[in-house]
């Protein structure tokens, strides 16, 4: 089981101090949070993708590459990479580059996003969101697995003899999660390709996420990728932790009450009762997280949202100390004792390389200078010989 944290990259007024951080302060803070996540023993850090205020994460690969240079072990991933409004060619190129720079310490989660105006900003129609997600991933899948791609679809210009560069590290594509809150077609897509399925288990009751996860497991087995128990599942979560539960409730309440996402709606008590949000002591977070395993069975990645709603950096770093020091070690032990021997381990670049090559050396792609260019198909040397070639 991998444990980590994710951020939606919001820049929100702190309801206690009344201060709103600048973009520069917030970006600097998220880097410190990611580095701290590794220091306290967590496995993964994820950032969302947004192109509108009040969010700052419009370029996840740039941010994650910087964090990769500051860390040694942390798996870097996305809470959403927008498969609908990003060109699949650019996703293939940018995330392959991140894969090289991080030495394989990355994967990505694809999603449609939840901000309607983004679609026309990038020349797309939100009414085509689901067909876009399905077609664009089909192309991305090919771009990472075929050195030369001929392709034609509905939503972008055709490709003829196209090679995305750089090629994936060790000729092994980054692992892909398909993230969804409510759409069974996305779970179906994840199962079809044998990829991971991430249930964004934050706002909905466990019974809702269980239906999607069970459907994904059934379809994963149907497509011949393994048994239902071997399907690759990730789960979201949300927590605020203090040594004493009454302190946690007191400290978090103003942030909950004013949060742009759920503030001014259900009470904190109602929300914690009906959703995965836990506000309490380390033991309470442990107990509630274990109920996810009761419902979903063995799964491979547990992510927590602890950085949002205007909470200052110091408060988030304190959360990380408790999460890494008192919550995750107990969860690792408890979940290891429960693990079915048939269930899969969390995918890593090393495990994917091993699955492809066994004990043999990995392929290291190199450009073929004789293949010609993508515009004319001509060899770069057919019109002029190198100096001294006839001597």
TrEMBL record:
Residues 371-382 have a biased composition (Polar residues). Keywords: Monooxygenase, Oxidoreductase. Residues 1-297 form the Luciferase-like domain. Pfam families: Bac_luciferase. GO terms for molecular function: monooxygenase activity; oxidoreductase activity, acting on paired donors, with incorporation or reduction of molecular oxygen. InterPro entries: Bact_Lucif_Oxidored (IPR050766), LLM_FMN-dep_put (IPR023934), Luciferase-like_dom (IPR011251), Luciferase-like_sf (IPR036661). This is Putative FMN-dependent luciferase-like monooxygenase. The keyword GTP-binding does not apply. One of its GO terms (cellular component) is cytosol. Residues 338-391 are annotated as: Disordered.
